[in-house]
């Protein structure tokens, strides 16, 4: 088989890139290790920056998102029993959009399948060959049969545990990583959200977040030890702990119900450099991970896709290769700023095992400064709604 761009990974990054390139007459094949249903069963975040929303519209897959999403003009930050609001729209002119990653991925699958895209599921042993030559190719096995795809370029959209990043020799690649000494226990429940906007809460007992998917679907998180398992947390225990970490007025109005999903995710900051090696380009989680505190995971993938999409269109339509040559540099410049913001939000809102009294005073001063200072609020708002591409 032959294609112009072989895309490894059928998550949001790979699907969005494939859809955008298809609309410009550029041929792709997507190789996905799992099935569509498996990919859609993963619960991920649900806050979209304007840049992501515009890219979905440009890809022609914005219709359901525009009809079903919610606009949030701000967010609440709480500490102890205190709370204040950051008004994104007042500070930046831009709100954020609430639309679950599951829904967005479903829209992308529907669009790709309606266009007859070459989506190959259950691929095993995917390997990228000769990426540092002009004739790269990808091999894989499906249903016990070995296959080969020759291509011009490979897009590594296969997430943190994929093969693409590992294909870049260790003599060329440099990884930067920070692991946090706690995880987030997340619960999805068919209950109305406790508040009309998200509530990020710093409490003596650890961080908590109240988020949502729609008027009757709430997503809540609490910081927990990495050694915990979801089985350690009955629904009752989770709701009790969440209440204790929220200001009284939210704790009192919280509507609880059975959890329909419960999982623990570790928190990690990670960046690999460079994001391009020869004809291989890394996008999304394959190249970088942020802790979820700033809701940047999916949104950092969007800027990679934006740069790579425009670079490929310039190459195929106008024989202009500058965008491809500068991809890694441009993508990383934005990624590091999103990494900084996510790391800062994480430090601001969590309890760390090694924190001494002084550190707690610094955290409190940071929160009070944010509460009182318009400039500090504007900085948070600009980062939260997304820096320009
Ligand atoms: N071969 C083929 N597919 C693979 C391989 C492989 N060796 N390894 C992983 N994959 C697939 C995974 O099954 C997954 O469906 O690649 C896909 C990667 O998808 P995501 O992990 O969702 O990553 P990405 O598409 O970059 O999405 C951006 O950022 O913070 C997150 O929540 C956010 O998941 C979102 C991600
Ligand atoms: C979510 O809704 O899952 C969510 C929202 C905001 C975050 C992280 C997760 O910062």
Notes on the protein architecture:
- This protein has 389 residues and is of the alpha+beta class.
- It has two domains: 5-70 and 97-177 and 268-346, 3-Layer(bba) Sandwich (FAD/NAD(P)-binding domain), CATH 3.50.50.60; 180-266 and 352-385, D-Amino Acid Oxidase, subunit A, domain 2 (D-Amino Acid Oxidase, Chain A, domain 2), CATH 3.30.9.
- Helix content is 38%, strand content 30%.
- The strands form three sheets. Strands 1, 2, 8, 9, 10, 11, 17 and 18 form an eight-stranded mixed sheet that branches. Strands 6-5-13-14-15-12-16-19 form an eight-stranded mixed sheet, with helices on both faces. The chain has a three-stranded antiparallel sheet with strand order 3-7-4.
- Strand 17 and strand 18 form a beta hairpin.
- Helix 10 (297-318) packs antiparallel against helix 12 (327-349) and helix 13 packs across helix 14.
- It is globular, with a radius of gyration of 21 Å.
- The protein starts with a strand and ends with a helix.
